[in-house]
């Protein structure tokens, strides 16, 4: 059984935090807090910023960071689901959406844009809506 995962390699630990490198332009929560403290230290004393504005900025940034983390976790779940789906295709007969390619699935690749079934005859068929999958014929 061959399943080829052809995506960005991201590993997950028990707490499901991705261990990928951050972009140099991204600002994490700690950097944001440092910037916020620096802004408070260097503000004009005659025109101080309202403390509710600081709290609002902090809350907004926290929500954005939580959304980013949730998206990463959902992406991981989708990849896991795609791998389960890929495993269930191997050894079954697949017919492409246009009906031109038919064959038994030998292996499946997980590409960034979805699954690609590789048939026993070597043809690669993207697994898209309209693809027909049924038990392999017995000979």
From TrEMBL:
Work out whether the entry's keyword set contains Transcription: no
Q: Where is this region: Disordered?
A: 1-25
Concerning Pfam families, the annotation shows:
FlgD
Work out whether the entry's keyword set contains RNA-binding: no
**What InterPro entries does the record tag this protein with?**
FlgD
The source's domain of life comes to Bacteria
What are the UniProt keywords, alphabetically?
Bacterial flagellum biogenesis, Cell projection, Cilium, Flagellum
Low complexity bias (residue ranges):
1-16
Q: Which GO terms describe its biological process?
A: bacterial-type flagellum organization
Protein role: Required for flagellar hook formation. May act as a scaffolding protein.
Matching NCBIfam families: PRK06009.1 (NF004670)
Q: Which family does it belong to?
A: Belongs to the FlgD family.
> What's the protein name?
Basal-body rod modification protein FlgD
The source organism is Mesorhizobium hungaricum
């Amino acid at each position: 059984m061959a399943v080829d995962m052809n995506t960005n390699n991201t590993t997950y630990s028990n707490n499901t935090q991705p261990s990928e490198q951050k972009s140099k332009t991204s600002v994490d929560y700690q950097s944001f807090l440092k910037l916020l403290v620096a802004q408070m230290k260097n503000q004009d004393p005659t025109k101080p910023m309202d403390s509710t504005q600081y709290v609002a900025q902090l809350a907004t940034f926290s929500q954005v960071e939580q959304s980013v983390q949730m998206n990463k976790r959902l992406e991981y779940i989708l990849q896991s689901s795609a791998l389960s789906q890929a495993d269930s295709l191997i050894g079954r007969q697949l017919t492409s959406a246009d009906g031109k390619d038919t064959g038994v699935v030998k292996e499946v690749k997980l590409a960034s844009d979805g699954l690609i079934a590789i048939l026993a005859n070597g043809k690669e068929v993207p697994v898209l809506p309209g693809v027909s999958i049924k038990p392999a014929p017995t000979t």
